Amino acid sequence: MRRSLRTKLLAYAAAGLLAAGLGAIALPGAASAHGAMMMPGSRTWLCYKDGRTSTGEIVPQNPACAAAVAQSGVTPLYNWFAVLRSDGAGRVDGFIPSGQLCSGGTGGPYNFTGFNLARNDWPVTHLTSGKTIEIDYNDWAKHPGTFSLYITKDGYDPTKPLAWSDLNPTPFSQVTNPPANGGPGTDDGHYWWNATLPSGKTGKHLIYSVWARSDSTETFYGCSDVVFDGGNGEVTGVGNPVTPPPTTPTTGPTTSPTGGTGSGCTAMYNVAGSWTGGFQGQVMVHAPAGAAVGKWTVEWTWPGSQTLTQLWSGTATSSGSLVTVKNASWNGTIPAGGDTTFGFLGSGTTPTTVNNLTCSTA
User: Signal peptide: which range, if any (predicted)?
Assistant: First the structure.
């Protein structure tokens, strides 16, 4: 893989590093931010919520979310916070082509094109026109910058591809460096600010979010489907996924995650990126639906001669091919049915699966 892509992947891996247990390595480039709208929820965020299961597998129930996965694969749902362009520099119309607004074009690290699909059945947030609400934007990684929210014009048709001409050209809300609660590196951590919704709106609309970092050219884009019907932030269209029984991990393509069971929690391994001689992986740790987790330990063995070179959002030790990862001080507690994620860099041939993946609360 080209060196420029390797550099980009390494830069993403450095986002919000909470490295422990292993010596840090020097990474080229600036650390990458990550985030997405949580209220009103973006398509990637709500489809991620729609498809979560206790095993860590993401199986969308919403038909639009399932169609997005059919086009783009499941990897975007494990990276719901990464609809970005590293060269965006806050640019909108004239930079992102019409019809590709929800994916941020095609120049980002992941394929989000399935989220451009013109459909009337995406998960939707119910709102009241003219009301002041709290906007929540996930801060998977924190960075200074400006958030701008645009809304569709009257007469918007969700069954047609979203074009720049469908949006009012002036943001109805714009804020720089808002406060944050919780995070980084969690589902719940978020920036927040109060915004007054446009008055006179009825029926279905779309809120388009742009987060332009001030310390780099990296820019995030997102589509949030809303309906103005007197609602107060209720979300519909997010299903109740059926939890499949635990299965023995099998080898598959890099876009297919590997699941692991254990005592009191489950873990899911996924490849986030790879290059010649190295790779980036991530593991999602899930608490069972009926019980919270107070601390967790994930273990696996490499299928070959791979080695762990860096890890964040946890503490790691290695002994031969065995890797043991324990929670960091801030992400050990997982509510019932909830999850947390840690990531890492490895050297060697990219493993599409790992062996003996287990999770325990010991």
Answer: 1-26
| Residue/partner pairs of 164-171 with CB below 8 Å, 24 or more apart | 164/92, 164/93, 164/98, 164/101, 165/98, 166/206, 167/208, 168/198, 169/93
Reduced to 3 states, what is the DSSP secondary structure of residue 69?
helix
Range 297-319 average pLDDT: 91
| Each residue's pLDDT tens digit, 143-181 | 899 999 999 999 999 999 999 999 999 999 999 999 998
Bridge-based pairing state of the strands 258-263 and 355-360: parallel
Amino acid at 325: V
Please state which CATH class domain 37-236 belongs to.
mainly beta
pTM of the model: 0.60
> Collapsing DSSP states into helix, strand and coil, what is residue 114?
helix
Answer yes or no: are the C-beta atoms of 220 and 84 closer than 8 Å. yes
Residue limits of CATH 2.60.40.290 in the chain: 3-27+256-360
SS3 label, residue 324: strand
| Cα–Cα distance measured from residue 39 to residue 235, given in angstroms and rounded to the nearest whole number | 10
